[in-house]
Design brief:
Layout lengths: L2 E6 L10 H10 L2 E6 L7 H10 L3 E5 L11 H13 L3 E10 L6 H18 L3 E6 L2 H15 L4 E3 L6 H9 L3 E4 L9 H9 L5 E3 L22 H12 L3 H16 L10
Parallel strand pairs: 1-2, 2-3, 3-4, 4-5, 5-6, 6-7, 7-8
Helix pairs in contact: 3-4, 4-5, 6-7, 8-9
């Protein structure tokens, strides 16, 4: 069995004391590839260094919607340069809209649009953060599609309704589920998890956040826990863990243009 954690933040300080031990645990639990997302420009070099340190780690470059005040043409040029020069860059992001914590809606939309243009230029998927902004995001994406054509991508850490889920599926996106899907009060997310087609579903931890059941409440989530997300999805969808692992790994490889090892990483 092989698993791919499609969204991690291993550069956060909480991981620094024992990152090698964390890597050993993810290898022991068959996580063969990881995609490291990016929040803001100061992380670019550090995340690139982590991807060099861990062969199974790939990464995205972008600016989170809550950090769009750090966006400028110099940052755009840095993203372009990394996407062009480093083969371990497999996505643009995370980017998107967050209208829950910020009201600078026009600035977020302009920056998200710029990310979409870069992703399209380099034929890379976008990793999308969307919180309390599904309707405006759908409208923006539809405008972009009409003006420039479609872009591949994933709705990461998805917590939307089934109707919203269907709208993003209709736009061609993959849907990635995190530890939220294991929570007892996540009925809407679980309904979405049941309806996503087999060829569009992904798994992630979004670590260090959102530890899944049965480790919910722990201070720090980590990639090895993605197996609990996979197990919960398998149960919701009436399939085996092995089958869920196989389809999500295949989907991640397709979206991010990854290959998986033929031998154990341990």
């Amino acid at each position: 069995m092989q698993l791919i954690d499609t969204h991690v933040h291993l550069n956060f300080d909480v991981f620094q004391p024992d990152l090698d031990q964390i890597a050993q645990r993810w290898r022991e639990h068959h996580i063969v590839r990881l995609v490291h997302s990016c929040v803001e420009p100061s992380e670019f070099a550090e995340i690139q260094g982590l991807a060099q340190r861990f062969p199974e780690l790939y990464f995205a470059v972008g600016v989170h919607p809550l950090d769009v005040d750090k966006w400028d043409q110099e940052v755009a040029a840095q993203i372009l340069a990394l996407a062009q020069s480093d083969p371990k860059v497999v996505a643009i992001g995370e980017t998107g809209l967050d209208f829950f914590k910020a009201d600078n809606h026009p600035q977020q939309e302009q920056t998200f649009w710029a990310h979409l243009l870069i992703a399209q230029q380099f034929h890379l998927p976008v990793i999308i953060h969307c919180r309390e902004a599904a309707t405006p995001m759908i409208r923006l994406l539809q405008r972009f599609w009409q003006a420039h054509g479609s872009v591949a991508g994933v709705m990461h850490c998805w917590s939307g309704t089934p109707a919203e889920t269907q709208s993003f599926l209709d736009l061609g996106f993959y849907i990635s589920f995190s530890g939220i899907v294991t929570f007892k009060n996540a009925g809407s997310v679980q309904a979405s998890a049941r309806m996503v087609p087999c060829d569009r579903i992904l798994i992630e931890t979004d670590c260090p956040f959102l530890s899944p059941v049965p480790v919910r409440g722990t201070r720090r989530n980590e990639p090895a826990n993605v197996r609990y997300v996979a197990q919960s999805l398998a149960e919701l969808r009436g399939t085996s863990l092995e089958n869920l692992a196989a389809i999500t790994t295949q989907n991640a490889c397709r979206l991010f243009q990854l290959s998986v090892p033929t031998q154990s990483l341990i």
